[in-house]
Specification:
Elements lengths: L5 E2 L10 H7 L1 H4 L10 H21 L7 E4 L2 H15 L4 E5 L4 H12 L3 E5 L9 H7 L4 E5 L13 H12 L7 E5 L11 H4 L3 E5 L10 E5 L25 H16 L1 H22 L3 E3 L10 E6 L4 H10 L2 E2 L15 H5 L4 H4 L2 E5 L6 H20 L2 H4 L2
Parallel strand pairs: 1-11, 3-4, 3-5, 5-6, 6-7
Antiparallel strand pairs: 2-8, 7-8, 9-10, 10-12
């Protein structure tokens, strides 16, 4: 079979769609003014920014366009949500989960060094947060609960609406309100986001995960949420995000989410068919392989697989030599020798976790791509296992 080039790392990033690039181009060359300037060049940019905010708010079903704060990325949005709320309230307690993205985990770890208390709620074997433990951990000091919408490594969708209901009920009997944030970076463009239905106070997204430009993100901040900036400078973005707005990026992100929302049903149907074909083929052709993704309750494009007695990084490099791009977990943790914290949280033993690969499907992937992977992958796993002292000692 002829060598192909196949990108199966779409949870790390996606290409920027041509429609998005075309929508952005005028804002690099013709409408290039600073949206804070009072002259016509600036006002043209400001009008474009205002319209994008209205459209983006509608795409999330936000009640007010001013609830949309444009940022540089999902990581900034996560930091702004958690630290920004804590800067504005008296409570010193944060609740999050054991399998959050490092944008949240490292923020919480830093907060612990600053004297805040953080509880990391455990999850079940599929990755779903244990709601009974979350309820137990809420105290009078709890100020922020941050639970991701879907996990970036195994794709599990968390019960965000149920968590929101718990917090809403708790807030009825409290003087100091708990604010609920969800990192929706892995669900934007894959699930129709409705902030009213989800019941969240804050929600983060990042454009490059849904075929938009890198360097652009957004944070939904429900009206009435107590929050202060974490960066200081100008008055931009309701005083929460100082610095001249990236108009081209914002236009591109808005266009990308608009397109993605219109295509959700057809794209997800395709992903489910391709993912099942890939998973079935792996289980049939490669012994001692385990699927870590719960197909019933996950985003449709993610498949996380552990191969016993191999080193995932070695397999990744060998796949790359065959033209297949995958990940061993979160791209943001690439290079780490530690087993994935996500896999450890769902009970995968450290040795098995080291032999894990994440396949994440995208718009460009086809059945022929999957068949090529299934032709190449078993041979490579067998080759890696022949070099493994663990496998050869069995």
């Amino acid at each position: 079979m002829k060598k192909r080039k196949i990108y199966l790392d779409n949870s790390a990033t996606t290409y920027t769609r041509s429609e998005v690039v075309n929508a952005m181009l005028p804002y690099f060359s013709d409408i290039y003014g600073n949206a804070s300037s009072v002259h016509q060049f600036g006002q043209d940019a400001k009008n474009a920014l205002s319209q994008a905010r209205i459209t983006f708010a509608n795409l999330l079903n936000a009640k007010d366009p001013e609830e949309i704060i444009f940022t540089s990325c999902g990581t900034e949005s996560d930091n702004m949500a958690i630290t920004g709320v804590l800067n504005a309230v008296e409570g010193k307690h944060v609740i999050t989960s054991a399998l959050e993205h490092h944008a949240v985990l490292h923020t919480c770890q830093h907060l612990e060094k600053c004297g805040y208390k953080v509880d990391y709620i455990p999850v079940d074997a599929s990755g779903r947060i244990k709601l009974d433990v979350l309820k137990e951990k809420i105290t009078d000091e709890t100020a922020v609960v941050s639970i991701m919408h879907a996990n970036n490594e195994i794709g599990i969708i968390e019960p965000v609406e149920e968590i929101a209901s718990i917090i809403k009920e708790t807030n009825k009997n409290r003087k100091n309100q708990i604010f609920f944030h969800t990192d929706a970076v892995q669900t934007a463009g894959k699930i129709k986001l409705d902030v009213q239905k989800l019941g969240v106070d804050l929600l983060s997204v990042s454009a490059h995960k849904f075929y938009g430009p890198k360097g652009t993100g957004a944070l939904y901040v429900k009206k009435g949420t107590k929050i202060e900036p974490i960066l200081y400078g100008g008055h931009h973005e309701n005083g929460l995000k100082p610095g001249t707005e990236n108009i081209a990026g914002i236009i591109g992100m808005t266009k990308a989410l608009e397109l993605a929302n219109n295509e959700l049903e057809t794209e997800n149907e395709k992903y489910m068919i391709l993912r099942k074909r890939l998973a079935d083929g792996i289980l049939k052709s490669i012994p001692k392989s385990v699927i870590n993704t719960d197909f019933i309750n996950s985003v449709a494009n993610v498949l996380n697989v552990s191969f016993d007695s191999i080193e995932g990084e070695t397999l990744l490099l060998m796949l790359d030599m065959e033209g297949i791009a995958v990940s061993t977990g979160s791209a943001c943790a690439s290079g780490s020798t530690e087993p994935s914290h996500v896999l450890q949280a769902i009970g995968v033993d450290p040795v098995t976790a080291q032999g894990t690969v994440r396949f994440s499907l995208g718009k460009q992937n086809t059945q022929e791509d999957i068949d090529y992977v299934l032709d190449v992958l078993p041979k490579l796993v067998e080759k890696v296992r022949k070099m493994s002292p663990v496998w050869n000692c069995r």
